[in-house]
From TrEMBL:
Keywords, alphabetical: Signal
Entries under InterPro entries matching the protein: DUF6048
Origin superkingdom: Bacteria
Signal peptide (from-to): 1-25
UniProt-listed Pfam families: DUF6048
Protein name, as recorded: Outer membrane protein beta-barrel domain-containing protein
Amino acid sequence: MLKKTYMCRYIFLSLLLCVSCAAFAQEPAGNPVTDAPEPVGTSNGYVPVYETSQDTAYVSGIRTEPADETPAPEEEKKKGAVYQGVYISADVFDPVLTFFNGGKFQFEVSADIGLWHTLFPVVEFGMMFYNPVTENYDYSANGFFVRGGVGYNLINNTAARKYDHAVIIGARYAYSNVTYGLGKAVIHDNYWQTDDEVSSGPVNADVGWVEVVAMVRVQMIKSFFMSLGVRVQFFPHLYKESVHYPTYVPGFGQYAEGVTNWNFDLSFCYQFPYKKKGGK
């Protein structure tokens, strides 16, 4: 009899617990955020409430903050943008050498366009005035040169694009027009012990050559850059065969058949602003 009494109590408590759990499960859950709107009831239960404001959005009574879609200032120039700006450069290395190279003055400027921050088509122009000071003769070689080519940037990563830093290798083809002449050259005849004065020119010549270029360009302050470069110049050739050739060629240096020259550049550069969205 006692065992039946305990068994009945056990069954009664189990049924009571099941009924309580079922009743609790039917009650709707409270709103996690006190200032969020309450769910709207329907015949099928309740449906989510979608309300939006300028700063906050509610989905199913849950408060969510809108994502910040404002691009950072440095993100304005996108990685995939083709046009990245125009760079105007002026070399200061050769003008400084004027004080040490005995009568040679040369300067050059260049303009290149950044494409995808990877390719840099470039045009370079310069002039040279060469009048060395000697006791035995007068020599002059004056003219201009033009180079054209393209460079490839080796560091097209996020940090480099942020500041427009670049390590560029490239190739150029160069053309120079030079007018040269020799005057008051004294030739001594040892047999007759006489001195004769001869002159030659002026002569005009067109010269071409090929270059391989390596350059590092870094931004010093906003839109202002400094670059250091080296050029390997080879395959010099005259456009018209001649028994005479210039001793010095603008943009190339000392000329001789089959010679290879090395030249250096130290330039300061200004970047014109890239084209912003909407033409601003």
